[in-house]
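Attaching the record inline, Q. Sequence:
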Amino acid sequence: MFFDTHAHLNAEQYNEDLKEVIDRALSEGVSNIVVVGFDRPTIEKAMELTEKYEFIYASVGWHPVDAIDMTEEDLQWIEELSQHPKVVALGEMGLDYYWDKSPKDIQKEVFRKQIRLAKKVKLPIVIHNRDATADIVEILKEEGAGEVGGIMHCFSGSPETAKECVDMNFYISLGGPVTFKNAKKPKEVADVIPLEKLLIETDCPYLAPHPFRGKRNEPSYVKLVAEQIAEIKGVSVEEVASATTENAKKLFGIN
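Structure, as predicted:
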């Protein structure tokens, strides 16, 4: 059974056929999905999905691209939601230097506030990183984020950085890019990071794996990520599925 640790089933891309998408995931052996909310509308929709489906959980936080929009009320709201039994993590949070909507200093401040909140409510964190690896690692260390640990979501960095994050009590999550022919780094990371520190995800509707690259992604495709990792590691798909599901349940506190 596969655990998709990062999905955006709360995205408008699924407005027309969400039930079919979820049914396909179940038929492909997906046992659990974490839907990630990163602003008011997506958090609200994520919470609705957790109420409707027993096997769907939520992670709630504020995306770095929109850091400039986050208010103290929003942070208070996230803290309240963190007490919900199906909220299993905070995030996605982090830094994004690709888009320039939110100034870097504001991104960093919002990131630090969310790490501090996670430590207060004792939940793991989900890290979004785009073109900001050095600053993210520095902030995680300075804020003592290893106390709660979490996920380096859709990890695209080097094996060396992956090891550094594992040493800080983080799991490395791989998605569609590990299946891309030209994606050297994710394949190297899949090779060197032990199975007990790996997770799998889709980040759907984005980053669909080969052979669906460029199309809308969905949780049923997480199986393709597991198959690629199994091939790289020379183990069975069942072994990858079992280990990554066990890892996710342990991290999220799901029995």
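The two ends are 15 Å apart (CA to CA). The chain has nine helices and eight strands.

More tomorrow.
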